Backbone:
């Protein structure tokens, strides 16, 4: 099952040791030298995964000569997870952390690092100030004294976006993240003044071990949306374009709220036993809609691979639609090859997070997690216990229906072969609904 992961973990320990450094491991980093607390801001070097080996050839001799302590992400997989925000959005881009001991040393290193890294690229480091093509500096009261050594081309004030792609006017920000901003916008194309959704991809965000980034994900999502347009309930594709190294996917704007918000509004801090029959039926009917949508996606040969409470919208008519196909995989054409990693923790099947070959049963696990959320209002990462006996007991305390709970547990089985198909889940939901009082 695990064909992909073997090609995704290259450790940088040997690369560093080949230059005579003594290395210790600190969580997801390799530490070289003794790092003391000081008032000198740290320097962060951000680089795409496929270029780390080449970067080290350029920068390690410099670090060796200066004898400055530093931290380096320990392998490819950790670098991907770092830049995907798995360790926190503030840590994105901090692939190499250089710890100058004096202001003079910091000034020297800024100049030298900028010289040897001018041809590299990396994701934006959101929690630091950019002072070079891939070099950033820790935000600190002492930063001003080091500004003289920064590359002025990268020290720019942020400007409010007035128009995007020559014809889209942002009217609201839906979401911001390290990947980019999602805008609600109005299209001026042919003076249509059509409302749309614009999903931005920042340069090199979510880079992986094959050099792919969020740009490739948006292009793939465009392909999937077009293919599914007549099959699944999902926003229509309008446009794709690139501007100033950023990528943009434009789709239909759908008025609605996330399934997460809808479920939380029904529970309002109560438990399953504390809501009435109408509310319970409403929750389960929404889940049945989710099952139908996922079934339609599977019928076109796709595994969705990112089913979660935030990727379903409840529209103004009360019906569900599904959004976000960046992680999806086509089982017939075997695209993308390899699939994009990783998934939403709490919803993604364990084997998906371990980069196993995709399978429809990954979505069954996610649907089982979503069902737990519908029954509790608690995010599955905080509810689903690794101890399945405990989970079964917890579910029994909620639904009082042993047969239904066994079905839910089967969805969450660690073995794909034990997970039921969608038809079986639908029948189980309908049977359970007959017992609600």
Residues:
């Amino acid at each position: 099952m695990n064909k992909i992961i073997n090609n995704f973990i290259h450790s940088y320990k040997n690369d560093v040791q080949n230059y005579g450094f003594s290395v210790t491991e600190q969580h997801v980093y390799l530490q070289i030298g003794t790092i003391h607390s000081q008032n000198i801001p740290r320097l962060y070097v951000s680089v795409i995964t496929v270029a780390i080996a080449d970067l080290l050839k350029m920068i390690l001799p410099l670090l060796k000569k200066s004898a400055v302590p530093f931290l380096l992400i320990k392998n490819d997989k950790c670098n991907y997870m770092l830049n995907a925000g798995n360790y926190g959005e503030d840590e994105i881009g901090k692939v190499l952390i250089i710890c100058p001991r004096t202001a003079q040393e910091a000034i020297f290193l800024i100049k030298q690092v900028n010289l040897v890294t001018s041809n590299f690229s990396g994701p934006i480091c959101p929690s630091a100030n950019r002072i070079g093509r891939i070099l950033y500096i820790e935000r600190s009261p002492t930063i001003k004294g080091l500004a003289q050594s920064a590359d002025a081309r990268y020290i720019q004030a942020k400007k409010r976006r007035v128009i995007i792609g020559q014809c889209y006017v942002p009217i609201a920000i839906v979401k911001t993240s390290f990947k980019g901003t999602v805008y609600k916008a109005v299209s001026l194309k042919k003076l249509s003044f059509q409302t749309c959704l614009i999903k931005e991809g920042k340069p090199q965000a979510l880079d992986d071990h094959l050099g792919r980034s969020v740009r490739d994900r948006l292009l793939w999502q465009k392909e999937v949306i077009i293919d599914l347009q007549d099959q699944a309930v999902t926003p229509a594709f309008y446009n794709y374009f690139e501007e100033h190294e950023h990528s943009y996917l434009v789709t239909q704007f759908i008025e609605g709220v996330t399934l997460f918000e809808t479920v939380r509004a029904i529970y309002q801090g109560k438990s399953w036993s504390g809501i009435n029959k109408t509310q319970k039926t409403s929750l389960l009917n929404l889940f049945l809609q989710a099952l139908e949508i996922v079934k339609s996606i599977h019928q076109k040969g796709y595994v969705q691979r990112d089913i979660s409470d935030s990727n379903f919208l409840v529209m103004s008519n009360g019906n569900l639609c599904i959004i976000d196909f960046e992680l999806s995989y086509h089982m017939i054409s075997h695209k993308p090859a390899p699939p994009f990693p990783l998934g939403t923790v709490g919803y993604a099947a364990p084997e998906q997070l371990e980069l196993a070959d995709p399978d429809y049963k990954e979505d069954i696990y996610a649907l089982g997690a979503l069902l737990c959320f519908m029954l509790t209002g608690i995010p599955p990462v905080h509810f689903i216990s690794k101890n399945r006996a405990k989970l079964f007991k917890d579910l029994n305390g909620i639904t009082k229906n042993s047969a239904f709970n066994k079905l839910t547990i089967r969805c969450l089985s660690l073995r794909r072969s034990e997970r039921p198909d969608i038809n079986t889940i639908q029948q189980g939901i309908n049977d359970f609904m007959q017992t609600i009082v």
About this structure: Residues 82 and 92 are 6 Å apart (CA to CA). The chain has three domains: 5-154, 168-252, 256-433. Residues 1-6 have pLDDT under 50 and may be disordered. The first helix runs from residue 13 to 17.
